[in-house]
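Case study 2.
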Amino acid sequence: MDGVLIIDKPAGMTSHDVVARVRRIIGERRVGHTGTLDPFATGVLVMLVGRATRLAQFLSGAEKEYEAVIRLGYATDTGDVTGVRVISPSPHAERGSGGEVGNAQPHPQYLPPAGEGSIPDIAGIRAAMALLTGEIEQVPPMYSAKKIAGRKLYEHARRGEEIERQPVRVTISEFELLTQGEWEPNEDGAVDLRARVVCSAGTYIRTLAEDLGKRLGIGAHVAELRRTRAGRFSIENALTLEEIAERTASASLAQALISPRDALSHLPLIELDEEQARRTVHGIDLLLADDEARSWIQGDSIRMTNHGELIAIGTFDANSNTVHPAAVLRTG
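Prediction:
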């Protein structure tokens, strides 16, 4: 069983948990994913099965699309709804009742429950969103799986350690406000806004929400997050874990698998004859005819197929006009 499954990840599970569950359901040890989702988040998780696990590097950098509820009114230490509510300038202050951080002075970004008029109007919010669109810099959050000096940042955060992080350039193609008209404050005075984000791989929506709050002068965090698309894979084609189990039990799961060839349909393709396929499987570079490279450029990834089956992903070398098999799927 080789191919790609699109999973609708439920809330409350890590991406690793979903991988382990799929392994147990389908009875296949070789299962991986192309990009994590936070435990509280839901939506598209691209799962690679069997020999398709060798394709992760060609799919993980795909553009992502999300729908989020951004809560304006207060920040949290994690940047999302799972964190501790921050109303103190000191991240190391003792926690008071209700899980809040207790201190006499309110956090400068905290919106008090009685702070009517502190939430900007739609025009102001859209203007702030526009300033966060395009190529921007983000500082990775402390509560993230990014590794520095061999340790994940959240491991430092849980120990109360703050680690210096370098900003990373990401692209926000679209940052759209979905909430229309007037909105009603929550019981605590915070306001929930629905937003849509289209962004490059590696973007932290939690950080984007916090940065939006900073531009508005208000604490902010992500209350809900749903990934609706990863590359060409959409939530409309995703299956729940329950549906995966049902299809496995009825021996119909293969119909839901996207073939490795189709999963990489965004890459150019070259069809190999039998001798070329044999040499490719053994890692031998393919020498192209002068007109075969077409508009390919140095370093392009190329699908290499034989009778329609993807046998390898190659890397184009413009200097030698060859394709080197970088990831071989067929064996023997």
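The chain has three domains: 3-62+232-260, 64-230, 267-328.
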